[in-house]
Structures are given as C-alpha cells and as structure tokens.
Amino acid sequence: MLYPVMEENALDIIIGKGPAARTVRLPVPKITIVGATTKLALLSAPLRDRFGLLLRLDYYTEDEMREIIVRSSNLLQLPITEKASLEIARRSRKTPRIANRMLKRARDLLEVNKHKAIDENLLKKLFELLEIDDAGLTDIDIQYLKLIGEKFQNSPLGVETIASSLSEDRRTIEEFIEPYLLQIGFIKKTPRGRVLAPKAFKHLKIKEPRESIGQERLV
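^ thats the sequence. predicted structure below, dont judge the formating
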C-alpha cells in the first residue's frame, strides 16, 4: 500500500502484513501537481483543499476558436480560407477537440476530392455528411428539440419521457445532449420539465405554440 504525504515530501510504503509489517519512507522531490475536473464536488474536501489555487476555465470565444483552427491547419499543413476557419469555429461548440475533429474530416474530403484548399464549398459538403447545422447542432439535438417543440407542442417534458421517445438512455440526454442546448439558451429546465426557449423555435423555423407562451409567463 502507498501513502503519499504531500506536505512532508515523502512517500510511505508499508511492506509486509500484521505484526511483521514495517514502513519504509522514501523522499519525494518537490513537485507541482495540476489537476483538472469537470465535477469539482466529487473531490473530497481534504484533497481539494490541498491545492493552493482553484481556477475555473471558461469556454473559448469564437475568435479564439478560429485561432486554434488556423494553428491546427498549419500543423497539419492544410490550406484553409479565413471564412472556412470561422465556419468551423461556429460549429465547434467552443471545444478545440471538436474543431480539430472537424478539421481532420475536412482533410479527408480535401484529399479525396482533390480540392486546393478547405473552403466554404468543401465545408458545406462536410457538414451535410456529418449532419451538423450552422449552430453546431447534430441530428440527435434536432430530434430532441423537435420532439418538445413540435410533437408535444412545447409542453413541459420530464427527462424519462424524452429518453423513451428518443430511444436513448437518461444519462445520454442529461450529459451529452442537454448541456450544450442549455449553454446556447435553446432549452429551459422548469419545475414541470423541459421546454424550448424562443431562440430554439426561431432556429428551427417553426411557430411557437400559444399555449407554451402562456406557460413560460407562469414559470
């Protein structure tokens, strides 16, 4: 068993079992530990408090995402237009790994179809293949929004009903689909269930039911 003592810069190793067990202490050089998590509350308080500095990282801006995409394209030796880099940035959900994944798929089309550069025409074909719209929404995101907005006329829905209707498990709904929709203001979580925000109706180009407008006022 290993027992690290962070404050004393030592590592205690217990050798053996029972009365014959003995502890050997090994010195550990002074190091800096950097941790990253998206669920801070799951860390125990003693471990969390041992970190001298707690910082919260926010999402990248659209301009920052464009700079990341341009840098990645240079590393991959891919010619890309300024408008194309901006289009990828808009659909990347402010996440570099998603932007880099899109860029690599764009490279596939570039090589297969022998384009000279990654431009808007190439990206139009790419996003049609990937089923990603201009807000970065995937096919399952659109299904989620239309389920609430069209099929149920924006009546508040519980997560179990949504999961059953989409044939997805609850964790997929709560951890994969909803976070981004909440971030961009397309859905609301009310005490009665999930409903669409006006921005979602405008994006889907469907008329908002009058009943849902009254419900939103009550909420």
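The CA atoms of residues 2 and 31 lie 18 Å apart.
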